[in-house]
């Protein structure tokens, strides 16, 4: 969660008494809860009933079977792949989309270069949705490019979160508006500027860029200078990385998507704009004809408290429940509910190799301790626990059984599941899963494993901080 509490240290926004009052109101409202999803563990999947669509429509059963057989032959596990495909469809009732090219973007600078290159090549429109958009060297470079594309006649639409960009001067966004860019502040902190029901705790945590309706980007990367430095390349300096998260490099993961499923990501952007403004954006060739660009099966999954369908939450639970061999998770913030922990622990106890990489340095110290408060339970279940060294780990990814992967904005925490608009891509593709596994292994090399013996010997101060953070987990 790079959400509400992050700005206590980043922006000092609680200094104002009126903001403090608003936070107190948020803490006192009745608590929402996640649904009972035990049925996901008890249902019987029928893999042969799985459906897949392409640019020409739904694939016939014979072609679906042939496609899955070909994909599964790469790992020799037809049943595992088919079960994950069926599980994905069972969550939403919608088939997976075939024919997509997915590119793994494993670092901040790589991601920013890829997004800016796509924007420079735009011919019709640029739709950008982000939680944080900072007025720094990275943010200004992107803003200048957006203004330039608008001057060339492109439609440019921007959604940013009011809390996420609370430290960004209003003049920064006024400059974009004056250039002709449509700018939407999601759920303004000031209720006088809000439209309809106002809930300060509901935030737009998504990171989405769609260019010309043909290329989509999503993942964990915000628009900030912390992504101007690599967290994968070894520094030539003998100086240790800064302990201040604002000055350190952030290790994050993003992805670029081309193919028919881009239309689904475009619909998510347009739906957010319509929900927040009550109006649709003027058409700018948002849905051009799309062709197959690759072989990956992809689903765009989105969650919003307005709909309360908990699609991403259910997807994670289902994927953990149906894991057969491996679950490898990288998470920036871990403040889950009981069912997430249970699904991971059950998998480990039935012999699945479950490994989780957590941060050792965070921009939100309280959340770091909230995550650590679960270590003993995870370790007792046989889950391998690691902490990423040196840099700020902000990625939100998982790769399961060498076939199923997800990258997105969603943390394994209550805020993502209950309070935020979130967006993930689920990919069923052996080659992409291998790249995800390679990245996971690379992070493991830069991580320290936490053992049960080591964890039992931690000090009383750490235990008290963990207890306090756990008590506040709903609001973190």
Keywords, separated by commas or semicolons:
alpha/beta, Endonuclease, Chain A, 18-stranded mixed β-sheet, two-stranded parallel sheet, 37% helix
Task: Summarize the structure in words.
This protein has an 18-stranded mixed sheet that branches. It is of the alpha/beta class and 476 residues long. It is 37% helix and 22% strand. It has two domains: 38-98 and 297-475, Endonuclease, Chain A (2-Layer Sandwich); 103-277, Endonuclease, Chain A. It has 17 helices and 22 strands.
| CATH topology description of the largest domain | Endonuclease, Chain A
| Low-confidence spans | 4-23
User: CATH homologous superfamily name of the largest domain?
Assistant: Endonuclease Chain A
Task: Characterize the main sheet.
Answer: 18 strands, mixed
Protein structure class = alpha/beta
**Strand-residue fraction?**
15-25%
CATH architecture tag of the largest domain = 2-Layer Sandwich
User: How many domains comprise the coordinates?
Assistant: 2
Distance between the termini: 8 Å
Question: What is the level 1 CATH name of the largest domain?
Answer: Alpha Beta
Tell me the helix content.
25-40%
User: What's the average pLDDT?
Assistant: 89
Structural Rg? 21 Å
How many E strands?
Answer: 22
Shape: globular
Any chance you could write out the topology, listing elements then pairs?
Layout (H helix, E strand, L loop, with lengths): L5 H5 L6 H12 L9 H5 L9 E3 L2 E2 L2 H12 L5 H15 L3 E10 L2 H13 L4 E6 L6 H15 L3 E7 L8 H9 L3 E5 L16 E2 L3 E4 L3 E5 L30 E2 L2 E5 L3 H16 L18 E8 L7 H11 L4 E6 L2 E2 L2 H12 L3 E7 L5 H8 L2 H6 L3 E5 L3 E2 L2 E5 L3 E5 L3 E2 H6 E9 L1 H16 L1 E4 L1 H5 L3 H12 L5
Parallel strand pairs: 1-3, 4-5, 5-6, 7-21, 10-17, 13-15, 14-20, 15-16
Antiparallel strand pairs: 1-2, 3-11, 3-12, 4-8, 8-9, 9-11, 12-21, 13-18, 16-22, 18-19, 19-21
